[in-house]
Amino acid sequence: MGETTVKTQEGRTATPSPITDEELPAPKLTLLRRLRTPRRPRIWFEVLLIAVSYWTYSLIRNAVPEQKTQALKNADWVWSVENHLSIAVEQSVNHAVNSVTWLIVAMNYYYATLHFVITIGVLVWLFRFHPGRYAAARLVLFATTVVALAGYYLYPLAPPRLMNGGHFIDTVLVHHTWGSMASGNLKNMSNQYAAMPSMHIGWSLWCGLIIFALAKAPWARILGLLYPAATLLVIVSTANHFWLDAVGGMICLAFGFTVARLWYGALPHQLPRLPTR
Prior knowledge:
Blueprint: E1 6-7, E2 13-14, H1 31-35, H2 43-63, H3 68-84, H4 90-98, H5 101-129, H6 131-154, H7 171-175, H8 199-214, H9 218-237, H10 243-264
Antiparallel strand pairs: 1-2
Helix pairs in contact: 2-6, 5-6, 5-8, 5-9, 6-8, 6-10, 8-9, 8-10
Keywords: Membrane, Transmembrane, Transmembrane helix
InterPro entries: Aur1/Ipt1, IPC_Synthase-Related
Subcellular location: Membrane
C-alpha cells in the first residue's frame, strides 16, 4: 500500500496533501479531543456534578467496612513509625492546644466547616474568574478524592483520638462542639476509621496551591499558603490525624495533578484563563 494518487488529464499522477487536524471542520473533531479542550463551564451542570460527586464520595467512604481491629493495629504501627522517626509530637500538641479552651473550640469548628466552605469558595472563584482553568482544576480535585477512597478501603486507620492507650484527647467530645461527624452524636454517620489519607490536607493544599498560582494580590497568595499549614495544625491538635496522614493526602493530590496534566497537556494554571471557542 502506498500513497493515494490522482490521475490528471495529462496522464500524470499527483499526490494529494495530507489533511491535518487543524484543517478538519469542527463537527469532525474527535470526541476525545473535544473532551480534552477546556470549555466554559455551565453553572447548572457544575452544581449537579459537585452535588452528585460529594454524595457518591460520602456514600462510598461510609460504606467501607469499619475494620476496627485492623484500624487500631495500623494506628499503633503508624505511631511506632513516627516515634522511630522522632516526629511523634501529636500527643504533646493535642494536650497543649486543648489547654486553651477558646483556641481548641475554634479549631473544632474550623475542622468541621472550612473543609467544605473554602473548597467550594475556590471552585466558585475559578468558575467566575478563570473559566478556562476550571475544568482542569476540578479534575485535580476529583482525581485526588477518588484515589483517597482507595486508601480508605485498603488501609483502615484509626485516628489518634480512638487509639487504645494513646492518651489523646477527643476535643470535640470534651468541649461538646456541634457540627463535626468525627465525634459526638454524629459519629455514627461517618466512618471513624478512614483517617488515611487526610482529605482535609488534600483539599486544603489544592485550595492553597490554586490560590497561590492564580491570585494576583500578594496577601491572597500568602493566605493561600497559610491555609493548608493552618489545616495541618488543626488536624493534629484535634487528634483527628497523624502527621503521616497528611503525607498521604499530599501524595493523593500529586496523583490528581498528574491526571490533569496528562489529560489536558498542562497544569491548571498553565492553561488560558478564558477558554478558546
